[in-house]
């Protein structure tokens, strides 16, 4: 998938556990896992706002576009 969700990176940088993050955002740990693993099909703006508030970041810090068609250099 060309959109990568970087929640795991931001959690590690902030030394925050998934359980604490889920509770503070108002998600279940299972739904956090869906986001982290790139299996989410959509995210509500209210959820995105909560995530950004808890992680003190911008939406662009959470999401990264990766060009799947780009040639991988070795």
Automatic annotation (TrEMBL):
Residues 20-62 form the HTH cro/C1-type domain. CDD domains: HTH_XRE. One of its GO terms (molecular function) is DNA binding. Gene3D superfamilies: lambda repressor-like DNA-binding domains (1.10.260.40). It comes from the Bacteria. PANTHER family: DNA-BINDING PROTEIN, DNA-BINDING PROTEIN-RELATED. This is Putative transcriptional regulator.
């Amino acid at each position: 998938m060309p959109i990568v969700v970087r929640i795991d990176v931001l959690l590690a940088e902030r030394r925050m556990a998934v359980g604490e993050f889920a509770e503070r955002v108002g998600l279940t740990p299972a739904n956090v896992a869906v986001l982290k693993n790139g299996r989410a099909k959509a995210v509500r703006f209210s959820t995105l706002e909560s995530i950004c508030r808890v992680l003190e970041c911008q939406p662009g810090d959470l999401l990264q576009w990766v060009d799947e068609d780009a040639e991988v250099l070795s």
